[in-house]
Design brief:
262 residues; alpha/beta; Aminopeptidase; seven-stranded mixed beta sheet
């Protein structure tokens, strides 16, 4: 079975991993068989749920950066598994059927049968992904003494029904933070880097950031920031082509990478 993720090497002395978890639309045939939507409805759901063009954004930023970051890219849709969810009852998105294995769509309609056992998909896809990402972080720690995860996402201009915290501001760039893993200098560098992209906000409409569980809340040498880009700033919604805004955002992301505090 081909790997569901890809680690694209950067410079040996770069501590940075650009993490791109939600950019793909690919769903293996046997996983597709467990999804209740017809093909037209599934394509529409993928338009809404996919962070379109974020892999291209990360690639363009990596090419522009003074020191090439590493990139960890999910090659399967988050409708297979969502690698950024907690795989257990800690996950608040279980309330809307969107734990590690989704049973509901962005519009809260049925995606999979409510009694779907998530364990086989978690075992086959979620756990290997998590272990590989943890190895990637450990590699940066061993090589440079620290690791910086920059989580690259996008989000829709208008709130979708699945959003639990979508009633707050929806800035052009939302920066998701963690009290333990996001130092003030990292946040400040991001706010400065993206200032020319229409402005930034913090933790609204999406908050937090991704750190592999083996380091989460325990390893201060691992820092992390989520970059959530509002889709109207760079693409036609939902699911349409990228526009010139993608280049501007790639340059801003590269500026962040070049300005990361030591």
């Amino acid at each position: 079975m081909p790997s569901s993720y890809e680690l694209l090497p950067g410079a040996d002395d770069s501590p940075v991993i650009l993490h791109v978890p939600h950019s793909a639309r690919e769903i293996p045939a046997d996983v597709r068989a467990g999804i209740l939507l017809d093909d037209t409805a599934l394509e529409r759901e993928l338009d809404h749920i996919t962070d379109a063009h974020t892999a291209e954004l990360a690639e363009a930023a990596a090419e522009r950066a003074g020191v090439t970051p590493w990139r960890f890219v999910n090659r399967l849709s988050r409708l297979v598994v969502d690698p950024e969810r907690f795989p257990d009852e800690r996950e608040e998105m279980l309330a809307v059927g969107m734990g590690a294995v989704y049973t509901r769509t962005t519009h809260r309609t049925e995606l999979r049968a409510a009694d779907t056992d998530p364990a086989p998909l978690v075992e086959r896809y979620f756990l290997p992904y998590a272990e590989a990402m943890a190895r990637a972080v450990a590699g940066r720690l061993a090589a440079t003494g620290r690791a910086v995860i920059v989580d690259v996402h996008s989000y829709p201009t208008a709130r979708l029904p699945y959003e639990l915290h979508g009633d707050g501001p929806r800035p052009p760039v939302c920066l998701g933070t963690d009290a333990f893993h996001t130092p003030p200098g990292l946040l400040a560098a991001a706010e400065k880097a993206f200032a020319e992209c229409g402005g930034t906000g913090v933790d609204s409409p999406f908050g937090g950031t991704y750190v592999p569980l083996e380091f989460y809340g325990s390893e201060p040498r691992v820092s992390a920031l989520m970059v959530e880009i509002r889709r109207d700033t760079y693409m036609t919604e939902p699911g349409g082509p990228a526009g010139p805004g993608l280049t501007r955002l790639a340059s801003a992301l590269a500026r962040l990478l070049d300005a990361l505090p030591g």
